[in-house]
Each structure stands twice: as structure tokens, then as C-alpha cells.
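Figure 6 in text form: structure in, sequence out.
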């Protein structure tokens, strides 16, 4: 069977009536995992790019559309594991907590999804933009293989459901940070002369597809019967 190549000069070019709309599971299992293991992909539809060396508007493809890229993880320090996400004009900042990507059949964790927001300028005084990135990584990548991640980049639409999700994730980040700052050790007092309660009751205690979807003309309405797999 002839291998499908739908990327031309870094641009995604699907036949008329089709669009690339994969699920999180499909991105991790059918694309990222196979990329890491050097296995054939369902379709050559995701190009390689150094996402954190270019500003999001300079990456290949149409900036107003959702774009996907394979990118290698570059550590910020030689002896650390923290990724370097600084670009020419700004930096990507993680927001919210990483979410698990579950396999629908086995109900096992197959990957992790991190949400990042692009800021112009230098930290910590950068200005927030509407650029969003979802970074997918494998849970337990095999040692010795290249550390690939899969990135989904898009512009956030004001008033959309994705906007509300990002706001909720940012609230989670603030809550976690505040809780970690407010944790203080409290003194513990023991009542050595207190009379024990001898009336306690016995036993009681005192404590699947490639992701290419046929578009029927309605941008936000899809049917599971209209999926075509390559």
C-alpha cells in the first residue's frame, strides 16, 4: 500500500472535504508512540519542527488553523530535566496540572498532556497572548530513544469552551501554588492526664483511528459514521 504524504513544504494539505481532527489517544498511540519507536505512521501528516526555537506565528502552516508538530525536547540545563521553552520573542509557560491520556479499551494511562500559554517578553514580566500549546509525551518512554513530544498549537478564541477550560486550569495552578505557600507546621498538644474513653464499641477506633475526519460542511458537527481511516 502506498504511503500517504499529506505534508508539502511544512504545510498540511488534505483533500477537499477532509480535515485532521484526532483525539488525544490517537495522537499519543498512533502518532507519538510510533514516531518514538520509528514505526510507520498512519499518514505523513505531522511535520517535524523546533517548536521552542520559533515563535508560534512563524511556524509552518496557517497560523489561524490548528497545527501539529513533532518536536524534540530540549533541556534547559545540562544536568536537569526541565524543558527549554524560550523562543525569540517570548516563552511558553505551563498552566494547570498535567492531564492523563487514557486508552479507551484498556483504561490505562498511555501519555500525559501539558497545556502551555505563550508570553511575549522575558519572564516573569511577559505579556500573555492567545497562543495555546498542548504538549503530549509518553508516560514511560524507552531508554535510549529520542525524546520526542507532539505539540498541538492554536489561537484561543475568546468566549469559546476552550477559553473556559484554560481559565479553570489557571485557577487550579493558583490554588496549588497558594496551598503550597500557606502550608505551615502546627504545634501538636498531647493530653497526658486525659481519662481514656473505655466505652468504645468493639473494633471501633478513636481516629482508534488516524484522526482524519470527513467534514460535512458544519464545522462543529461531526458524526462517528463520517470517519475515514488511512
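Output sequence:
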Amino acid at each position: 500500500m502506498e504511503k500517504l504524504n499529506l505534508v508539502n513544504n511544512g504545510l498540511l494539505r488534505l483533500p477537499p472535504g477532509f480535515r485532521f481532527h484526532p483525539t488525544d489517544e490517537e495522537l499519543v498511540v498512533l502518532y507519538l508512540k510510533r514516531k518514538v519507536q520509528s514505526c510507520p505512521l498512519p499518514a505523513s501528516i505531522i511535520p517535524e519542527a523546533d517548536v521552542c526555537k520559533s515563535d508560534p506565528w512563524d511556524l509552518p502552516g496557517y497560523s489561524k488553523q490548528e497545527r501539529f508538530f513533532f518536536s524534540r525536547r530540549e533541556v534547559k540545563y545540562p544536568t536537569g530535566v526541565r524543558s527549554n521553552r524560550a523562543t525569540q520573542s517570548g516563552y511558553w509557560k505551563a498552566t494547570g496540572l498535567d492531564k492523563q491520556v487514557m486508552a479507551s479499551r484498556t483504561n490505562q494511562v498511555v501519555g500525559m498532556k501539558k497545556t502551555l500559554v505563550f508570553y511575549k517578553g522575558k519572564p516573569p514580566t511577559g505579556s500573555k497572548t492567545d497562543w495555546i500549546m498542548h504538549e503530549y509525551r509518553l508516560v514511560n518512554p524507552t531508554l535510549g530513544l529520542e525524546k520526542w513530544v507532539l505539540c498541538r498549537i492554536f489561537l484561543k478564541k475568546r468566549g469559546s469552551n476552550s477559553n473556559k477550560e484554560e481559565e479553570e486550569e489557571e485557577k487550579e495552578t493558583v490554588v496549588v501554588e497558594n496551598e503550597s505557600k500557606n502550608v505551615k507546621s502546627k504545634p501538636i498538644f498531647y493530653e497526658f492526664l486525659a481519662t481514656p474513653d473505655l466505652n468504645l464499641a468493639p473494633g471501633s477506633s478513636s481516629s482508534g483511528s488516524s484522526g482524519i475526519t470527513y467534514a460535512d460542511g458544519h464545522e462543529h458537527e461531526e458524526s462517528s459514521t463520517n470517519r475515514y481511516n488511512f
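Caption detail: Helices lie at 24-36, 161-182.
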